[in-house]
Design a protein that fits this description.
The complex is a heterodimer of chains A (664) and B (242).
Chain A (H helix, E strand, L loop, with lengths): L3 H12 L1 H22 L5 H17 L1 H14 L3 E5 L2 H14 L4 E4 L3 H5 L2 H7 L3 E4 L2 H8 L16 H12 L7 H18 L2 E4 L3 E3 L4 E6 L3 H7 L3 E7 L3 E2 L2 H16 L6 E5 L13 E7 L3 H5 L14 H5 L1 H6 L16 H12 L1 H4 L11 H5 L6 H9 L15 H14 L2 H18 L5 E2 L13 E2 L6 H13 L22 H11 L3 E5 L4 H11 L5 E3 L1 H6 L5 E2 L8 E5 L2 E3 L4 E5 L14 E7 L3 E2 L2 H5 L2 H5 L2 E5 L4 E2 L7 E2 L6 E7 L6
Parallel strand pairs in A: 1-10, 2-3, 2-4, 4-7, 5-8, 7-10, 13-24, 14-15, 14-16, 16-19, 17-20, 19-24
Antiparallel strand pairs in A: 5-6, 6-9, 9-21, 11-12, 17-18, 18-21, 22-23
Helix pairs in contact in A: 2-12, 3-12, 16-19
Chain B lengths: L2 E5 L3 H5 L2 H13 L2 E4 L9 H6 L2 H16 L5 E3 L2 H14 L4 H12 L1 E3 H8 L8 E8 L3 H6 L4 H8 L2 E6 L14 H4 L1 H18 L3 E4 L2 H13 L5 E4 H6 L2
Classes of the chains: A alpha/beta (664), B alpha/beta (242).
Chain lengths: 664, 242
């Protein structure tokens, strides 16, 4: 099969002004966001190097790490399934669904699910999968595949979404992004509350503790893994980190690289299904570990591609992606590669065959912006080159996708340049021919079919090449005396600023759109009552901490989707990111910080720690059935990269920060 | 005894832009370096290597290694991507053959890009060059990201008398050359080039300086096609101007 579809899709993309605007916007915003997020990490390069080394260790010793992970996860009460390929993964899922007579499946983002064609298979089996990430939901309604691994609807503009929601959801046409977001919230809230199964991907599995870590911004990931009676996680076997310390490192890289956030709004840390005494959480948790070609990729020269953490930074900086979007990465058979961009041009041929996808690696100028942006320092240009050379697990054809004449030309060039005599003769001949072809212009006008001539002229060869001038030049310079040298200036050093944890926390959370009120403990009940009264909130879901400070007549102790405010305690606050760590368990329903529109968190200043790594060291985090790290109100930027607050999770986050540091 | 270096002039400069080669020899000479030119050199093999045709790249890489093995002193390469080929590409090409890998490593260790050699090895920052008017610098991808060379050409340009060096917007974006890419994906290459030329326009500089001949012929070719007057010059040409 030919590459015609691929080339014509590229041309269509370039000619599509709407798409070009959307892609330029994406590239610009994501690039700026990433750079400013990493400004707060002075040791970024060291972290990258370390992350690379950790992933190298995981991939080299994958069997051991996987064994440890499976042992821990099983001990924690999660049911583990292993799937060799996509058919097996789907069969396992459908069996789980059948055993629960499930029909409605609420799904949060998972690239593995794209890879195994999950939605299609479920529909064929009579189930109803519903994507709940706003961007994924939009592309699902359009009957499309995502065009970006973290911003699935990056190819669309607001008018197109408005038209879609008008047609499919029956709302009046609007281009108002908050209205569109709110419509999705309303429709999907019903799905979360009635779904039989929640499905998610896994961003990181932690071998040492059996933790499933899932990051989302909208809150749909929390919904899918908390509300339905059964949660099924899909995970590629390579997505492991050894320990929670390593997880902290990777979490300092992933959101910054993906969306320019220090942390995503919700970082869920899941260990087990609902335990006795818990009032929320799924009754069953399953994890399906998917191989689907990864073991073969691992023992190939492309194994480094398994270090990928799916942040999408390489897509955002790639000048090819910027022209094409993910929808142009077509196989020879016309199917869309599940993974686009520079990383996709390696793993799509690596996992699904060089024959069908190998040519994608040729669509790169090898500029290296991808490697530079990669938080795990994956040498993508080197991997693209290996893919081009056919060093894929299935031993592809060298130069796959290269047009015949180019292949022939390069072969001929090798024969000519193999000996200097022949090379010099061809230089002279070329000089003469180009002089005849273009007697006056130093740059020749070549026809478009040559490729080069499509947009530029080509220089004439010199009649006398450098080697012909060397003798005279040497005589000239040998006659001159040689000179002496100067020195190199030193480089600047950055200053370090010191702030209190309270100040840092307040500053960070405020920047995320959260509100922080600092007060003495004795003033808390009155201030809280004032706040609730001022907003007319007369029913409040609470956890144990909330129950102690909210007046009893307002209390609701069971999860209730109709209550608009939740008041909870906080295990620890993280100053560097303005985050709250909440652990589930008896007396601590995680739904209290998820379902209401307003979340009020009570945090003691003495419970602040400087960094994520320190927060993850708390034993409560690893002992909980589920824990969540909250960094600001729920948000999305899935429509035209425009920030919208309050998607599925709370749209308001208020922290009452109690000053107890000097014994008040 | 003055330092003697070996010039790997690269096939593009040799065949298309011999003046750049001359300029480079004069500049090195002015920096107190004696230049040799092993005349049996041809091409480093990068075009075939980048296309994925390693069997076609290999004889040229072997040839280049043999040519420079017969010489001593640093090997100076006036093009970022050819420098990256010799420094990194050869190690990849021979990764499974220890004997050749050792020879490739020996060459990689004594190879330098032109401005890198001047600034980092010779410690030269001011060559007494003079260039009246505006200049702007395009950091070529392989030079910038594969060799990590950026401060060096900028330092050298900053010392050029009479030159007003203007920042090129989105300077680190690829110009769309990429070797076979520019021929194989003409539409994509054309879009990158368009952006580069638009950014060049905004600087108001009549001259764009590069340290890679691939980018030079690509951007200059685009400017010529569009009938524009800006000139793309190699940094050696600027530094040779006194």
């Amino acid at each position: 099969m030919s590459l015609k579809a691929f080339h014509s899709r590229i041309r269509q993309s370039i000619a599509d002004d709407n798409l070009q605007l959307a892609l330029d916007n994406n590239a610009q915003r994501r690039m700026e966001g990433r750079l400013s997020a990493f400004a707060s990490v002075p040791d970024y390069q060291e972290r990258r190097t370390l992350a690379h080394a950790i992933k190298a260790d995981v991939v080299a010793n994958l069997d051991e790490y996987l064994h440890q992970f499976i042992t821990r996860v099983t001990e924690n009460g999660i049911q583990v399934h292993r799937a060799e390929d996509s058919e097996e993964a789907l069969r396992i899922f459908l069996e789980i669904a059948r055993s629960h007579q499930a029909h409605l499946v609420a799904k949060s983002k998972s690239m593995v699910s794209e890879e195994i064609n999950f939605n299609h298979a479920l529909e064929a089996a009579g189930l109803r999968p519903v994507e709940t990430d706003l961007g994924e939901y939009i592309v699902q309604l359009r009957g499309e595949r995502p065009s970006h691994i973290i911003t699935p609807a990056v190819h669309l503009r607001r008018g197109q979404v408005g038209q879609l929601f008008h047609e499919k959801l029956g709302i009046p046409y609007t281009e108002d992004i908050p209205t569109l977001t709110d419509t999705a919230r309303r429709v999907l809230r019903e799905i979360f509350l009635t779904a039989d199964i929640g499905v998610s991907g896994v961003n990181f599995g932690v071998s040492e503790t059996g933790t499933l870590c899932i990051v989302t911004n909208e809150g749909n990931g929390r919904m899918c893994t908390t509300l339905p009676p059964v949660h099924v996680a899909l995970m590629g076997i390579e997505r492991l980190v050894p320990s929670l310390d390593d997880l902290a490192l990777f979490l300092s890289l992933l959101p910054r690289s993906a969306t320019g956030q220090k942390l995503s709004v919700y970082t869920s840390l899941l260990h087990s299904p609902r335990r006795p005494g818990d009032i929320d959480g799924p009754l069953e948790r399953h994890i399906i570990l998917v191989d689907n070609g990864r073991s073969r990729l691992r023992s190939s020269p492309l194994s480094e591609s398994l270090f990928c953490i799916r942040c999408g930074a390489c897509l955002n900086v790639c000048p090819v992606f910027r022209e094409t979007s993910g929808h142009a990465y077509l196989g020879r058979d016309g199917t869309l590669a599940p993974y686009p961009g520079p990383i996709g041009s390696v793993i799509s041929p690596g996992l699904f065959g060089c024959e069908n996808f190998g040519h994608l690696a040729q669509a790169s100028s090898l500029c290296g912006a991808c490697k530079e942006a990669c938080p795990v320092d994956i040498d993508l240009p080197a991997l693209l080159l290996r893919t081009r050379a056919g060093e894929t697990p299935d031993r592809g054809q060298p130069g796959t996708g290269l047009p015949g004449p180019l292949k022939f030309g390069l072969h001929g060039f090798r024969l000519v340049a193999g000996t200097s005599g022949l090379f010099a003769a061809f230089q002279t001949l070329g000089g003469l021919i180009s002089r005849i072809y273009s007697p006056r212009r130093t740059y020749m006008h070549l026809p478009a079919w040559t490729g080069w001539g499509y947009s530029k002229d080509f220089p004439r060869l010199a009649v006398r090449p450098f080697r012909g001038k060397w003798k005279n030049l040497k005589q000239e310079i040998d006659a001159k005396p040689l000179a002496a040298l100067s020195t190199i200036p030193a480089q600047a050093i950055f200053p370090v600023v010191d702030k209190s944890l309270e100040d840092q926390f307040t500053e960070e959370l405020t920047a995320l759109g959260g509100r922080v009120t600092r007060l003495a403990e004795k003033d808390l009940p009155a201030k809280l009552a004032d706040f609730l009264a001022s907003r007319g909130l007369d029913r409040v879901v609470v956890d144990e901490t909330g129950a102690r400070v909210v007046s009893p007549e307002l209390l609701v102790r069971q999860p209730d989707p109709d209550v608009h405010v939740g008041v909870t305690g906080v295990l620890v606050g993280i100053a560097e990111t303005g985050s709250l760590v909440l652990v589930g368990g008896p007396g601590h329903p995680l739904t209290a910080s998820l379902l209401p529109q307003v979340h009020i968190a009570i945090l003691k200043a003495s419970a602040l720690v400087p960094s994520l790594a320190e927060a993850l060291q708390r034993p409560e985090v690893r002992e909980a059935a589920a824990a969540v790290i909250i960094s600001g109100p729920s948000r999305t930027a899935d429509i035209e990269m425009t920030l919208s607050i309050g998607v599925h999770g709370p749209g308001e986050l208020h922290v009452f920060l109690i000053d107890d540091s000097d014994g008040v | 005894m003055p330092e003697t270096v070996q010039l790997f002039v690269t096939c593009l400069i040799d065949s298309f832009f011999p003046n750049i080669g001359e300029a480079m020899v004069r500049v090195l000479n002015r920096a107190g370096v004696r230049v040799e030119f092993p005349s049996s050199q041809t091409c480093c093999g990068q075009p075939a290597f980048n296309a994925g045709l390693r069997r076609d790249a290999r004889p040229l890489a072997e040839h280049t290694i043999r040519v420079f093995e017969k010489t001593t002193g640093a090997v100076i390469i006036p093009s970022g991507s050819c420098g990256a080929m010799v420094r990194h590409g050869y190690l990849e090409l021979f990764k499974d053959e220890p004997a050749w890998l050792r020879r490739a490593e020996a060459l990689a260790q004594r190879s330098y890009e032109f401005t890198e050699y001047l600034v980092d090895i010779r410690g030269v920052t001011d060559l007494g060059a003079c260039w009246p008017g505006r200049l702007t610098y395009h950091p070529s991808c392989h030079l910038l990201r594969s060799l990590g060379v950026d401060r060096q050409p900028r330092t050298l340009l900053a010392a050029v008398k009479g030159a007003e060096v203007i920042d090129l917007p989105a300077a680190d974006e690829c110009c769309g050359f990429g070797g076979v890419f520019s021929v194989e994906h003409p539409e994509l290459s054309a879009e990158f080039l368009k952006r580069k030329i638009t950014n060049l326009e905004t600087t108001g500089s009549p001259t764009l300086v590069v340290a890679d001949t691939g980018c030079l012929m690509h951007i200059q070719g685009g400017l010529k096609r569009q009938g524009r007057n800006q000139r793309v010059v190699h940094i050696a040409e600027v530094l040779a101007n006194i």
